[in-house]
Amino acid sequence: MASGDKSMIGRARGGSEGVGMTSRRTRERLVEAIAAQGVNDARVLDALREVPRHLFIDEALQSRAYDNTPLPIGHGQTISQPWVVARMSELLLEPGVPERVLEIGTGSGYQAAILAHLVPQVYTVERIGALVPQARQRLRQARLYNVHIRHGDGYQGWPEYSPYDGIILTAAPHSIPEPLLDQLAVGGRMVAPIGGAGYQELLVIDKTAEGIEQHRAAGVTFVPMVHGRG
Ligand code: SAH
């Protein structure tokens, strides 16, 4: 685990403050709602304050950017509910700040942007080709340069940069994909929704020298993880 070198961690500045429905005050109300739902980690709450969620959402839906709900991002996919993004980030940081995190399911890039504020390097894999350049552009707009995006099948992970100290799944498989467990470092943690369409268990999986330990953190609803590139 790294100490979390701040100099390597991107910061969102300029051009992204927003006005009215997307203002800093609107964002602060969302942060307060998430804290009231039990997310205590100040680093995570700060990241939520910093990242302009409206940048990761189509213009037509921007007035709802700071509602605590998932929203459509096209291609039948959704940007996750802010509470879920916050809770998963908090769980990932619990054992210590991971040096490198792998995310499966880049989608809009919002979860990756939150992670970019919290850890030195974020690697993220998305299976739908059209979402990749869009997420890249949004992360650049948010001035975040420590996120690396790959168009690929997340069931295979991203072996080149493994092992990862943290792995987060934002699409749900029926069971934990073996290649992802292989790419998790000893001492590392995976946070993953596991189950069928409509309802999954959010599992926290710790890889220790003795083996795998897991516990259930919440009931959640994610889009299913789909095999192959789209
Ligand atoms: N983290 C995203 C959530 C997007 S929804 C955000 O913050 O916006 C889940 C995403 O997972 C979708 O974009 C979907 O295309 C992607 N996905 C589903 N199966 C996948 C797979 N096997 N590999 C990579 N991405 C996958």
Give the distinct bound molecules. S-adenosyl-L-homocysteine
- Secondary structure class reads alpha/beta
CATH superfamily: Vaccinia Virus protein VP39
Separation of the first and last Cα atoms = 34 Å
Question: How does this model look, in words?
Answer:
The structure is a single chain. With 230 residues, this protein is of the alpha/beta class. It has a single domain, classed as 3-Layer(aba) Sandwich (Rossmann fold), CATH 3.40.50. The protein has 6 helices and 9 strands; from the N terminus they run H-H-E-E-H-E-H-E-H-E-E-H-E-E-E. The protein has helices at residues 24-36, 42-50, 82-93, 110-118, 131-141, 178-182; strands spanning 71-74, 77-79, 100-104, 121-126, 147-151, 164-169, 184-194, 200-208, 211-220. The strands form 2 sheets. It has a 7-stranded mixed β-sheet. The chain has a two-stranded antiparallel sheet with strand order 1-2. The longest helix is centred in the first third of the chain and has 13 residues, at 24-36. It is globular. The site of S-adenosyl-L-homocysteine has 23 residues, from strand 2, helix 4 and strand 4.
